[in-house]
Write a structure and sequence with these properties.
This protein has helices at about 15-30, 80-85; strands spanning about 50-55, 75. The chain has a domain at about 15-85. The chain is built from two helices and two strands; from the N terminus they run H-E-E-H.
């Protein structure tokens, strides 16, 4: 497990600044598919629900200390990331349970 921090302040740092941008770059270079839906992520797209984002596998709301741990970061579409919220697992797709 890799935790990246700079400075002498104890505890995790918020997800902003130089460290966060460096971690984002590593995730963008390493992964090609959304970890939530499994579809390919267009790294050049800059707007819309299909754009690239970095998601926390264990959400920051549930594990603030994991905010800057590289093993906790995943590539995701903006729409998938937003739809997941602070749940640990992605929302199940709606299916009908009855045959009419």
């Amino acid at each position: 497990m890799i935790m990246v921090r700079h400075g002498n302040k104890p505890g995790p740092r918020p997800c902003s600044g130089r460290t966060w941008r460096r971690l984002q770059a590593i995730v963008f270079e390493t992964f090609t598919h959304c970890w939530i839906c499994g579809q390919w992520v267009d790294q050049e797209l800059r707007t819309g629900p299909e754009q690239r984002t970095v998601d926390h596998a264990i959400p920051q709301a549930l594990w603030p200390e994991g905010a800057l741990i590289l093993d906790n970061l995943r590539l995701a579409h903006m729409g998938c990331n937003s739809g997941r919220g602070k749940r640990l697992s992605p929302r199940a797709k709606a299916t009908t349970s009855r045959t009419w």
